[in-house]
Write a structure and sequence with these properties.
This protein is α+β, with helices and mostly antiparallel strands. The chain folds into 2 domains: 3-12 and 90-255, Pseudouridine synthase (2-Layer Sandwich); 22-88 and 270-283, RNA-binding S4 domain (Structural Genomics Hypothetical 15.5 Kd Protein In mrcA-pckA Intergenic Region, Chain A). 18% of the residues lie in helices and 35% in strands. The strands form 4 sheets. Strands 1, 9, 10, 11, 12, 15, 16, 17, 18 and 19 form a 10-stranded mixed beta sheet that branches. It has a 5-stranded antiparallel beta sheet with strand order 5-4-7-8-20, with helices on one face. A hairpin with a 2-residue loop joins strand 4 (56-57) and strand 5. The longest helix has 10 residues, at 257-266. The relative contact order is 0.21.
Length: 285
């Protein structure tokens, strides 16, 4: 029989939608990001040019950190660019990561990475939302939507993660209480927000745990802090996204555009993701 231990609900209240990039008056974004997207230089070089006073916005010298929106006119190198907005076309998928794969693009040791199995992209790049270490399997959400990735990974987003753990031996009620109350790790205090006890088989105890952050090896280190050792670890949920049984180890499933919009809403973002572009209109010479 399952036993559930909880100090608070695993799901936090949905955060309010951020107005940082999309407001009622339209989208705004850092000038250097838009210009870099248009292929006019790297962000770092464009920032240096802004600091040097080489770029104008609506007739005025731009300042570093300035944001621009739909309709702004940008001038550099005698060229003029109109900032326009359009719906961003992003892709999101869920991947069932097997043990033995790393969540990096290029591994210096030549190990297989999760990106080796993913579909190619004509534009953008896959962003892993919350990494998994090489010995942890399960759900990995990947997207080309940087705003979504940032919201789901940032602590302020309060997006919880759920893991299935196989722990060696038995676990006492006192240990469970410690894990829910909180323990001190090398990088600060940590705790599980929920623990559900499952079966005991072959000298191992199964637990489903949830926590509100994703520090390096945090689940394993929490168990180790109370004298328990994790034999197997699998992530089964990240916020509102569950790992479906039909997606086998090493396989992925892409979300539909409608599901992508719902996911944005679930984490407090606008369902309409706007992308700003710099389009050349004419020469000022």
């Amino acid at each position: 029989m399952n036993r559930q231990h909880s100090r608070k609900k695993a799901r936090a209240e949905k955060p309010k939608a951020s107005g940082e990039k999309l407001t009622e008056s339209g989208a705004t974004e850092r000038l250097q990001k838009i210009l870099a997207r248009a292929g006019l230089g790297s962000r770092r070089k464009l920032e240096a040019r802004i600091e040097a006073g080489e770029i104008r916005v609506d007739g005025r010298i731009a300042e570093l950190g300035a944001t621009v929106g739909d309709g702004s006119l940008v001038e550099l190198d005698g060229r003029r660019f109109r900032i326009t907005s359009r719906p961003a076309e992003h892709r999101t998928l869920i991947y069932n990561k097997p043990e033995g794969e790393v969540t990096t693009r290029n591994d210096p040791e030549g190990r297989r990475t999760v990106f080796d199995r993913l579909p190619g992209l004509q534009q953008g790049r896959w962003i892993a939302i919350g990494r998994l270490d090489i010995n942890t399997a399960g759900l990995l959400v990947l997207t080309t939507d940087g705003e979504l990735a940032n919201r789901m990974m940032h602590p302020s987003g309060q997006v919880d993660r759920e893991y299935l753990c196989r722990v060696r031996g038995s676990v006492s009620e006192e240990q469970i209480e410690q894990l829910l109350s909180g323990v001190q790790l090398d990088d600060g205090p940590a705790r599980f927000s929920d623990i559900v006890a499952g079966e005991v088989t072959g000298g191992h105890s199964w637990y489903t745990v949830a926590l509100m952050e994703g520090r390096y090896r945090e689940v394993r280190r929490l168990w180790e802090a109370v004298g328990a050792q994790v034999a197997r670890l699998k992530r089964v949920r990240f916020g509102p996204v569950f790992l479906p049984s039909r997606v086998k180890s090493g396989q992925y499933e892409e979300l539909s555009p409608a599901d992508h919009r719902v996911l944005r809403e679930d984490v407090g973002l606008s369902s309409i993701n706007v992308e700003l572009m710099a389009e050349e209109v004419s020469s000022s010479r």
